[in-house]
């Protein structure tokens, strides 16, 4: 077998799927639901969970604009490495700034690595009722400032590859819509 044939047979197409949106929008839930489905089909999948990343490779970073940008660039770097090597990297990370997200997309384009941006566009009114981690309540009580979407910016993606209105869907429906897009693009 020639080298070309080995490559052709062994390489599966990886991709980065970045799920951006407000706290409690549903990013993490959709990522794990989708991960389960992709794994069941034999794909290699990693979820780069924002909270875990902040414990390890982004330990010490806070929530200033600069720190969030650094956090997003580090995650983008790791995701691209994984995706380039055949893994589907699912990234449920807020990434509130358009220029940070654009830089991650560029890194993928420069390496010919597939990149999909999903805006989990749950309105802040719904997120603040869900309040999975109690952050909205803390902000309202004056115990926290700089909460994304409340008193810190969230720059909505203008042209995401997919927009999900999670408030009108089940978790399974939301995950299925991402799966359908990946399928369409030959990535699932
Ligand atoms: N001030 C403030 N603003 C937003 N989020 C906050 C804040 N403080 C803590 N958290 C929790 O940290 C998670 C966000 O981390 P990320 O790494 O995803 O954010 S970022 O892209 O660097 O902005 C985020 O996780 P998710 O709720 O899963 O989005 C929050 O739980
Ligand atoms: N269609 C949906 N997609 C994702 N989450 C949903 C959906 N409908 C309801 N939820 C609920 O919303 C919450 C989202 O929390 P989480 O995934 O931790 O948000 P995030 O990671 O964006 O902070 C979960 O409790 C989840 O069960």
Notable characteristics:
alpha/beta, Rossmann fold, five-stranded parallel sheet, binds 3'-phosphate-adenosine-5'-phosphate sulfate, binds adenosine-5'-diphosphate, transferase, EC 2.7.1.25
CATH superfamily: P-loop containing nucleotide triphosphate hydrolases
Instruction: List each distinct ligand once.
Output: 3'-phosphate-adenosine-5'-phosphate sulfate, adenosine-5'-diphosphate
Compute the average pLDDT: 94
CATH class: Alpha Beta
Number of helices: 8
* Sequence of strands across the biggest β-sheet: 2-3-1-4-5
Structural class: alpha/beta
Along the chain, the helix and strand elements come as HEHEHHEHEHHEH
Portion of residues within helices: 40-55%
Which word captures the global form?
A: globular
How much is the radius of gyration in Å? Answer: 17 Å
What is the total domain count?
1
CATH topology: Rossmann fold
Please give the oligomerization state of what you see: single chain
The percentage of residues in β strands lies in: 5-15%
Pathway: Sulfur metabolism; hydrogen sulfide biosynthesis; sulfite from sulfate: step 2/3
Protein name: Adenylyl-sulfate kinase
Pfam families: APS_kinase
EC number: 2.7.1.25
Describe the model.
The protein is of the alpha/beta class. The protein has one domain: Rossmann fold, CATH 3.40.50.300. The chain has eight helices and five strands; from the N terminus they run αβαβααβαβααβα. It has helices at 3-10, 27-40, 50-55, 65-84, 98-110, 124-130, 135-140, 171-184; strands at 15-20, 45-47, 88-92, 115-120, 162-164. It has a five-stranded parallel beta sheet with strand order 2-3-1-4-5, with helices on both faces. Helix 2 packs across helix 8 and helix 4 packs parallel to helix 5 (98-110). The longest helix is centred in the middle third of the chain and has 20 residues, at 65-84. The two termini are 27 Å apart. The model is unreliable at 6-10 (pLDDT under 50).
